[in-house]
Design brief:
The chain starts with a helix and ends in a 5-residue tail after the last helix. The longest helix has about 35 residues. The chain is globular, with a radius of gyration of 20 Å. It is built from 16 helices and no strands. With about 350 residues, it is an all-alpha fold. The protein is about 75% helix and about 0% strand. The chain has one domain: ABC transporter involved in vitamin B12 uptake, BtuC (Orthogonal Bundle), CATH 1.10.3470. It is found in: Cell membrane.
Length: about 350
């Protein structure tokens, strides 16, 4: 017996077919990418877009397009990473409330970067990535250890509560670090909101190897996550090494979350909202859910970035603010629907 046969309905195709939904999601991503390049504080025409794609920046419109292209790419990459990491974390913990933000992983990476900048003077993106991944990993281990205390082990409710308490504590520590260094507080405060503005390909390139490694590990963990969904005892009975499966899967999610936080700052709720929406299209099979979550995360973050530019025009709302406005009501709805006492 395998996980595919042990989980009822795992291979059942939702209405309309997963393949069709996948094609539509790819089309939506392409459409949003085009809108992100064309729409903003200054609308541009097709001529400016084509000229900018050929490297020309002779007019204001062409310069605007040239700035939006890396911004759109960063939003797509970061959204895919956050959506995928959220799906993996929910699978590893069997917790519908799991999310890099709710479990404190984003803020762990954020605190590590804030300390490194304020006290050790790091300034390169390569250093940011290593420090952020270290902070994310340490926080994930801490939250899991705290959530595992007491009778019943790491239940979804205990993990969620441990993550939220840790997030509050880490957020306070980040503020304390910024207050101690007024000369860097402004930059850290803007980064702490979470956004994709000011993106450049030079800024994105150092994180791509980490994101690629996290993507490969996470997608390769689909079979393990299907087995873990049955419970540790059943997964072990199917021949899976539960501790290895949970550790490797978590490592992929931590790489994705840490690298994204390093380049964008902490962006919340993408990893919570997207997997829940994708399950409506794919069912519970992680072989489909993980790639759908990556595409869905990219779509959500690009759409949030577009909304942030339009809602506050001619100014902008950082994408972290928009995702919080979208994600907070969804979080409340999930808690009410799941009846958190029974998690």
């Amino acid at each position: 017996m395998t996980a595919a046969t042990a989980i009822p309905g795992l291979d059942r195709r939702p209405g309309g077919g997963r393949g069709l939904w996948l094609v539509l999601l790819v089309f939506l991503l392409a459409l949003l990418g085009a809108l992100s390049v064309a729409v903003g504080t200054r609308d541009v025409g097709l001529d400016d877009i084509l000229a900018a794609l050929h490297g020309r920046t002779d007019s204001i419109g062409q310069a605007a397009v040239a700035a939006r292209i890396p911004r759109t790419v960063l939003a797509a990459v970061a959204g895919a990473a956050l959506g995928l990491s959220g799906a993996v974390m929910q699978g590893v913990t069997r917790n519908p409330l799991a999310d890099p933000g709710i479990l404190g992983v984003n803020l762990g990476a954020s605190l590590a970067v804030a300390v490194a900048v304020a006290w050790f003077g790091i300034a390169s993106m390569q250093a940011y990535v290593w420090v952020a991944i270290g902070g994310a990993g340490a926080t994930a281990a801490f939250v899991y250890a705290i959530g595992s205390l007491g009778r019943g082990g790491p239940t979804p409710l205990k993990l969620a509560l441990a993550g939220m308490a840790t997030s509050v504590a880490l957020s306070s520590l980040v503020v304390a670090v910024m207050l101690s260094r007024g000369d860097v507080a402004g930059g850290l405060q803007a980064w702490q909101i979470g956004g994709v503005g000011g993106a450049t390909f030079a800024r994105l390139m150092p994180v791509l190897p980490f994101l690629g490694a996290g993507l490969a590990i996470s997608l390769a963990s689909a079979r393990w996550l299907n087995a873990l969904a049955l419970g540790d005892d059943m997964a072990a009975g199917l021949g899976e090494r539960v501790a290895v499966a949970r550790g490797v899967s978590s490592a992929g999610a931590i790489l994705l979350c840490g690298a994204t936080t390093a380049v964008c700052g902490p962006i919340g709720f993408v990893g919570l909202v997207v997997p829940h929406l994708c399950r409506l299209l794919t069912g519970i099979d992680h072989r489909w859910l993980l790639p759908f979550s990556a595409l869905g995360g990219a779509c959500l973050l690009i759409a949030s970035d577009i909304a942030g530019r339009l809602l506050a025009r001619p100014a902008e709302l950082d994408v972290g603010i928009v995702t919080a406005l979208v994600g907070a009501p969804v979080f409340v709805g999930i808690v009410r629907r799941a009846r958190v006492r029974e998690l």
